[in-house]
Amino acid sequence: MASGTILVVEDDALIAAHIESVLTAAGYTVLPPLAFGEEVVAAVTSHPADLILMDIQLAGAVDGIDAVAQVQAIYDIPVVYLTAYAQDERLTRARATTPYGYLTKPVSGHELLATIDTVLYRHAADRRVRESEARYRNLVANVPGAVYRCAVEHPRRAIFLSDAVQAISGRPASEFLSGDTLWLDLILADDLLDAERVVAEARDRRAAYSLEYRIRHADGGLRWVHDSGRFDYDARGVPVSMDGILLDITARKQLEAERDAALRALQERDAYLTAIIENLPGVVWLKDREGRFLALNRAHAVPSGLDGPEHVVGKTDLDILPREQAERYRAEDALVMESGQSLCVEELIFDRGEYKWVQKHKTPIRDADGVVIGTAGYSHDITALKRAAGEQMARELLEAEKLRGLSVLAAEVANEFITTLQTMVTELDLALGDPALGVATRQRLEAALQTAERANRLTQPLLDYGSAARPRLDDVVLADLVNEQRQLFEVAVGAYATLNVAWPDVLPPLRADRELVRVALLHLVINAGEAIGPQPGLVTLTAGVTDCDAACLADSLMATGALPGRYVFVEVTDNGCGMDAVTRRKLAEPGFTTKSAGRGLGLLVVQSVVRAHGGVVTVDSELGVGTTVRMFFPAAPAVAGEPQPTLTLREARPGMRWLVVEADSAVRGLMLESLARLGYSALAAATGGEAMQLARTYGAELSGLLLDVALPGLDGPATCAALRQLRPDLPIILVSGYDVATAASQFASLSPVACVQKPWRLETLAGALRAATPVDSGKSLR
User: Fold this and answer.
1) Contact indicator for 65, 97 with CB cutoff of 8 Å
2) How many angstroms separate the CA atoms of 386 and 380, rounded?
3) Beta partners for 778?
């Protein structure tokens, strides 16, 4: 089906109806036919038409030809004339309106439809051509130069030339198109010969041409012109025209001339500068604004692999350095020139087979008017200074941290030894309580007990030395800790490594001793920096939260008794030398170290700190790739600080008992046996979490709490506080391997009734129990 809107202008109603019928049947939209020419403009204004069928001879003052002229003055609508005469003087007038066709009445339906279809197609094609020509004219008008087409043979008269030529030559395009002026006549004689040679060579090679020359402007002055183009060939390969563009480059040439003059002035001073800079220690250079070297000393040229300064002058950093390094230097130069301020930076470079630290000073160079025209620079090797300063700081840091680490180890060793003594003393006490014991055996046991007490006294100095390293737990925000210590950590990684802190946005607080965590983290950072050695590397600190099951905890560096649950981990990763599987298996051995000098205390201190908090340490490493060490600390429990329901006390009933909370299984078993020997019933828990579960189950039946101060996970103070919420009246006896005064002060707000120091004797424990549970309290089961 055809489409389009047709306006029929015919004063014969029968003919108009016939035409409308044929067009409608063919699918066209036909506007209401008109009989008068005066009505046509108004009709197409209100109802746009795609084609007008116009009767030449119409009734009224305006005939068809005049009506078409009025429409064409406003709209682009194709017209087909209807006429009863094949030869008529009106046809001569009609041609002036450029109709698309004529139809002689009477019109057959086939001829009518064929003509309309052809006219609509031609009009659409004509419109596309006009639009294309308009775009081309607009393009030429906006080109920043004069577009031309000229003849190939001399004198190469212009065939087409855009109006922009007037701005270049001072002459209108019409002057060249008419032949009154030839472009070749404007080119200076000194430049014409070279210009002709370039064009001839391009023609011979069938290639594009590009050249620069001077012309004489209409005002008498000279202008520099850049002329580029190519030849157009016919089907036989014969050049028929030259198409190109002319650009006014006078301003650019002036700038180049000024630049050249400035360069010449600088070259005059080159001899003086060379004598000065060759005698300066370090590397010296001068650059212009484009980054080209103007002068430099031999110390700069030789490391770049060039024979001397003369081979570098005129080059840029991009010509003599790796691209990444060169781009960095160019950015520094741009900053100096744009800001007008000097710049001093330190960087690590690879020079002749080794890494070096250099300090660079860059400053802007100004001309007599104060305009920045380049940069001057000086750099010198500070590797020895930096290494000496870093080593001195590292030595002081390591000595301080070794003392701190020894304190941690002392506390760990003392506590473990006292726990062992507690087992020995309790076993001896229980054995001495046997009424069937012989005299000789009793004497031997008492002698052994005295020996254990002497061993305990020998342990006290070690305990006193390490007491400062005993964990003092608090809520630790790791992000704050790392931010406060970042400068220290950056020193600790060494002169060659870079510290990267990739901290999560949200991380729960850690229930830990802030100072001990800092010490452990510092040791890991130091180890990571040493693993990288004297070469560029990266040490990354990050953290997160994870749920550890038994399999995860079993993968730790050494067994710690840590329980499955939620842990906060701190991770230190380096891309240093890494370790093989054999070396990783030896890490847990006391005193083992991968360094040629050292005692292997760093990782041992880390393990001691983490174990004291009820956590674990894991190590992942691959030879030649790097190492990742993770410290897992139990997350701060939800119990602490949350209100717990207070149990309603019931009347005491048979079976009331003591709750024993002790981390060491051997000591815990002997404590239960000791309580039984003294006539008490008891429940036992290894952790604060287990104690809370038992307290919720047997809360009203408990007559007191025997609490080991040092617990993994939910620590002693937190466990004690949580149990107080369940049983505010519950008597509490503290048991500590550390100084009892320190332990008592730590729990002062919780009002413990007694504090027993390990290794305790049965009579000491019995006295504490009597003090906590008077006979008339109704809470004792003795």
Assistant:
1) yes
2) 12
3) none
Query: Quick one: tokens of 135?
Result: 């775009």
195, 213 contact by CB (below 8 A): yes
pLDDT given at position 415: 65
pLDDT bracket for residue 644 (50, 70, 90): very low
In this prediction, residue 595 carries a pLDDT of 60
Q: How far apart are CA 386 and CA 357, in angstroms?
A: 8
- Mean of pLDDT values over 682-693: 88
Residue 289 in tokens: 């604004």
**Which amino acid type is present at position 68?**
V
CA 597/CA 591 separation, integer angstroms = 12
Range from 29-33, 80-84, 102-106, 435-439 carrying the lowest mean pLDDT: 435-439
CA distance 613 to 711: 8
How many whole angstroms separate alpha carbon 521 and alpha carbon 498? 16
Number of helices (H), then strands (E), in the chain:
24, 27
What pLDDT score was predicted for residue 247? 93
Which pTM does this prediction carry?
0.38
Location of structure tokens 């001399």: 154
Contact by Cβ (8 Å): 755, 419: no
> Strand, helix or coil at 310?
helix
Report the distance separating Cα 683 and Cα 773, nearest Å: 17
Could you give the CA distance from residue 238 to residue 397 in angstroms, rounded to a whole number?
Answer: 86
Please give the C-alpha separations between residue 496 and each of 24, 171, 344, 386, 724, in angstroms, as whole numbers. Answer: 88, 68, 19, 10, 53
How far is residue 207's CA from residue 757's CA, in Å, rounded to a whole number?
101
Strand partners, 82: 55, 103
Q: Max Cα separation, the chain?
A: 160
Residues whose CB falls within 8 Å of the CB of residue 570, separated by 6 or more in sequence, listed in order: 478, 517, 521, 541, 542, 543, 630, 631, 633
Distance, in Å, from the CA atom of 643 to the CA atom of 698, rounded to the nearest integer, reads 19
Percent of the chain with pLDDT over 70: 82
CB of 781 closer than 8 Å to CB of 680? yes
Query: How far is 289 from 255, CA to CA, in rounded Å?
Result: 13
Instruction: Return the C-alpha torsion angle 76, 82, 86, 89, nearest 10.
Output: -60
- By C-alpha distance, which of 114, 118, 85 is closest to 100? 118
Q: 420: part of which helix (H) or strand (E)?
A: helix 383-432
Q: Which of 649, 664, 779, 640 is nearest to 720 (CA)?
A: 640
Q: Which residue has the higher pLDDT, 179 or 135?
A: 179
